[in-house]
Design goal:
By secondary structure, the protein is mainly alpha-helical. The protein has a domain of 49 residues. The chain contains three helices and two strands; from the N terminus they run ααββα. A two-stranded parallel ribbon has the order 1-2.
């Protein structure tokens, strides 16, 4: 909403067409699966991994250098460029 207020309606319509599943973050995630600069971000990506997410979309620059086999880590712009057209 903050970055692209003119696209809110289009983006919401697109999101409603996607399938998704809720994944609960464990209280004590297993550590050491990957390295990340901000330790507060670890549980977020950990949840995507244990939830078998295909894609993890984030604008947080702390995820740019993280190396995991899956999910694919993309910025919102990358995701839209690949999947919205």
């Amino acid at each position: 909403m903050r970055k692209w207020p003119e696209y809110i309606d289009i983006f919401e319509q697109y999101l409603y067409q996607l399938s998704f599943e809720t994944v609960v973050t464990p209280i004590n995630p297993k550590l050491g699966l990957f390295e990340i600069r901000d330790p507060n971000d670890y549980p977020v990506l950990y949840s995507a991994i244990i939830g078998a997410a295909d894609v993890f979309v984030t604008g947080d620059k702390d995820f740019e250098d993280v190396e995991v086999d899956a999910p694919a880590i993309m910025t919102p712009a990358e995701f839209v460029r690949i999947f919205a057209y």
